[in-house]
Amino acid sequence: MARDATVLDELYGVIASRKGTDPDKSYTAKLFSRGRGKIAQKFGEEAVEAVVAALSEGKDELVGESADTLYHLLVLWADCGIDPAKVWAELDRRVGTSGIDEKKSRAKK
After folding, report:
1. 36 in a domain, yes or no?
2. Rounded to whole angstroms, how far apart are CA atoms 22 and 5?
3. Number of domains making up the chain
4. In contact, 54 and 86? CB cutoff 8 Å
């Protein structure tokens, strides 16, 4: 069964529920126990692996690495206390805005 992007909200809920649980029984709990630096490092590693897959591997590999990257980003958000709804709202705010104009508006801040 194909799912839509709501799977990210569901996954975030599962990830957030693993905070403070036994790191020997959950990879997510293990990431939380190792701290934000390790979580950020894993996110970066997965992002690089997605870039490598895009440049030198097939579509299936890129799909897998993209899923890993999104998972680790959600773990990072949970560790930082960022609800995905805030990110979705920011993306929604940007709809219809030129990327060039949006970048210029950030440079002025």
Report:
1. yes
2. 28
3. 1
4. no
Q: Which of 31, 2, 14 is nearest to 84 (CA)?
A: 14
Q: Which residue has the tokens 């773990």?
A: 75
d(CA 88, CA 109): 21
Is 8 within a domain?
no
Q: What is the pTM of this model?
A: 0.86
> Which pLDDT band, with edges at 50, 70 and 90, does 49 fall under?
very high
The residues near 8 (Cβ < 8 Å, ≥ 6 apart) are: 70, 74, 84
The answer to the question of residue 100 being in a domain is no
C-alpha distances out from residue 85 to 12, 46, 51, 53, 91, Å: 11, 23, 26, 29, 10
Q: What are phi and psi of 96, to 5 degrees?
A: 85, 0
Residue 103 in domain: no
SS3 category, 11? helix
Rg (alpha carbons) of the chain, rounded to whole number:
16
